[in-house]
């Protein structure tokens, strides 16, 4: 589909035909990403499958450029693994993907998609899928579910009609220590308004060698209680992109995206 208004309308029409006329789930290859797609209960999945040229396109391009072949990608709120699967396609056997998802209904899908993508690669990076939430303290928290859009589940209380479950949560730095990671290159965080709880303690306590080159996180400023953007600036991060849904902050040497040319200039930021 063309990347314009007409393409969006055609994609939405085709999406309706596929969902209504197919036996779900569908096993699909979208570029180098392999996924088993259920489509009816996940907005992100539908967006990526039917409009991959539109769904977080800038964010995914910046992630790809900021992630070296032996790099480490941490995906907080991994959903069904769209970002993590794309990260796998650029990593070699020394690379690592740490995919963290609190919703147990998504964990099996996430694991399947990452394994399916890796199985088609000559180079097979390390994959770790963790069914936990990320918050400022350890313990059990209520996860408020959205049955129509599983990716919208949140630790923040939703309207009274939503179902809920108890899930374990840990601080990000604790999880990283348990996984024995000695470096991180990119962190993506999309946890429906709890991004400040996950990232501020990490930014305040992480040693310099664990600071990633790049943060990609959902813009939920109206829900945050902490000053996440200010803490990022205090640790020498710069806002390099603000898209319709997300912020991108990078350390020192930003990757400049030329929206007109639809590509990212080569160059990975370096921490010395």
TrEMBL record:
GO terms for molecular function: methyltransferase activity. InterPro entries: FkbM_mtfrase, SAM-dependent_MTase, SAM-dependent_MTases_sf. It comes from the Bacteria. The keyword Phosphoprotein does not apply. The keyword Transmembrane does not apply. Keywords: Methyltransferase, Transferase. Residues 75-199 form the Methyltransferase FkbM domain. One of its GO terms (biological process) is methylation. SUPFAM superfamilies: S-adenosyl-L-methionine-dependent methyltransferases (SSF53335). PANTHER family: METHYLTRANSFERASE, FKBM FAMILY PROTEIN, SLL1173 PROTEIN. This is FkbM family methyltransferase.
